Amino acid sequence: MTLTYKQLLEIKDLTVDFDRFGGKARVLNRVNLAVAKGEKVGVVGETGCGKSVTMKAVMNLLPTRRVTVGGSIFYKGRDLLTLDRFARRQITGKEVVMIFQDPMTSLNPVFTIGQQMEDIIGYNLAGAKRGLRLPKRLRQEAREQAARFLAAVKLADPERILNSYPFQLSGGMRQRVLIALALANQPDLIIADEPGTALDVTTQAQILELMDQLVQERGIALLMITHNLGVVRETTDRVYVMYAGTVVETAATDALFAEPLHPYTKGLLDSVPKLHGQGLSAGIEGSVPDYLQMNPGCRFYPRCPQALPKCEFEPPEPRSISENHMVSCHLIG
Ligand SMILES: Nc1ncnc2c1ncn2[C@@H]1O[C@H](COP(=O)(O)OP(=O)(O)OP(=O)(O)O)[C@@H](O)[C@H]1O
Ligand SMILES: [Mg+2]
To answer: CA 200 to CA 48: how far, in whole Å?
Structure first.
């Protein structure tokens, strides 16, 4: 079956509710987000605003109990939420792979890097089930490919790395191995959730630059969550700004930085230390409120410096400002 589709990934009206002590918390509230083939998209927003929950919903990594997921997640035109577990696993973890912030938890501690990479590559080569023993010729081919992927992520001495266990490598090396593993799947989309934040800033910058270069060369789409607005500005084509489980604004990266419209986006950009001027500017007071006590209107209302009376009770609808630029705010439109 061939489907026509405009976007590689298209999240439509995604809602996620967690049953908590004291009630149902609507953590994602109608999130819309799309990534085109080969596009680099950033997601920004304060801690707790639902970035990781969104990505986990795509990857089917949310807990199965006490969670309700609504809306649709189209990948190449098929709604992942309607597929059974087996069909979904053919896509997520293979065509769509995720790189986490802490490489130690994503690598299996009891297998060498070589064993873990050869498993993935062998599976691709043989089209066989993982864990099956490959014929010798394919095993050798898988090992050679694994070494090439390690070289691509600029790890010196791939042979030594292949024979190492995760604990024998430094944090930066492990993060590179994770990228190599992601590439070995030959994905169409890589989702990176704050890659390298467990590392020092210099190593993190190198990792992000490397990842940017590798996806560019291979035409892989990248959906990247990061707190580093400098990185977003330099590497992404488009940005989504999330606040308290909603997308408040999205635009081409240049347009968003040049003309942020939502008061939250403005505050977020203002909170970046400026090279000129005196240290940190004001930013935004307070933090993301408890999801069990969200304001019924605009979720940003309690913190918004420009709130109107209607913001308290009327949720703003997304409005198109220009092609690609969308904002949800009563002050605009
Ligand atoms: N399994 C879960 N059960 C209940 N609540 C959860 C669960 N996972 C996440 N949450 C809640 O969902 C909200 C959003 O969390 P999420 O991890 O998506 O934030 P984030 O934007 O990724 O933040 P950060 O920048 O700190 O990584 C938080 O209030 C969190 O407590
Ligand atoms: Mg997160």
So the answer is: 23
Sequence-ordered list of residues with C-beta below 8 angstroms from that of 11, at least 6 positions apart, any chain: 31, 32, 33, 34, 54, 57, 58, 71, 72, 73, 74
Q: What is the pLDDT of residue 277?
A: 47
List phi, psi (to 5°) of 52.
Answer: -65, -35
List residues bridging with 191 in a β-sheet. 98, 223
| Cβ–Cβ under 8 Å, residues 59 and 98 | yes
What share of the chain has pLDDT > 70, as a percent?
Answer: 93
Using CB atoms within 10 Å of the CB of residue 86, give its burial: 0 to 12 exposed, 13 to 18 middle, 19+ buried: exposed
Supply the pLDDT for residue 3.
67
Cα(188)–Cα(102) distance, rounded to whole angstroms?
A: 22
Ligand 1 pocket test target in 31, 51, 246 with most atoms within 8 Å of CB:
51
Residues of the chain with pLDDT under 50: 276-281
Phi-psi region of 193 (alpha: psi -120 to 50; beta: other; left: phi over 0): beta
Ligand nearest to the CA of 294: 1
Sheet with strand 40-44: strands edge to edge: 96-99, 189-193, 221-225, 40-44, 238-243, 246-252, 325-327, 319-322
Give me the pLDDT at residue 273, please: 59
Is the distance from CB of 177 to CB of 153 less than 8 angstroms? Answer: yes
Q: What 3-state class would DSSP assign to 14?
A: strand
CA of 226 to the centre of ligand 1 (A): 15
For residue 192, list its beta bridge partners. Answer: 99, 224
Are 71 and 11 within 8 A, CB to CB? yes
DSSP class of 166: G
Q: Measured over all CA atoms, what is the biggest interatomic distance in the chain, rounded to whole angstroms?
A: 71
Q: Given this model, what pLDDT does residue 131 score?
A: 56
Ligand 1, CB within 6 Å, residue ranges: 18, 27, 45, 47-53, 63, 291
